[in-house]
Amino acid sequence: MASHTPGPRGTYLLLAAQNAYSIGMSEVLRVGIGVMVVAALVISAFMPERAQTVSHQPSAPEAAPAELATSRSRPRL
Hints:
This protein is mainly α. Helices cover 57% and strands 0% of the residues.
């Protein structure tokens, strides 16, 4: 529309539209950042804490015989 407006009015209209777009985008980014910060605070407040580390490792299943563990060939069944 600004390109069809004669004289300096078209230039002023174009600059006003670009300025409005820039201001609108900066406001949207500020609101988005605020929402993300609030969401992070809410999540950190209501998420359960990490589980306490276990003092001992759970027992591993029976280990395979050493010759099977170190053998590169397939075990015989």
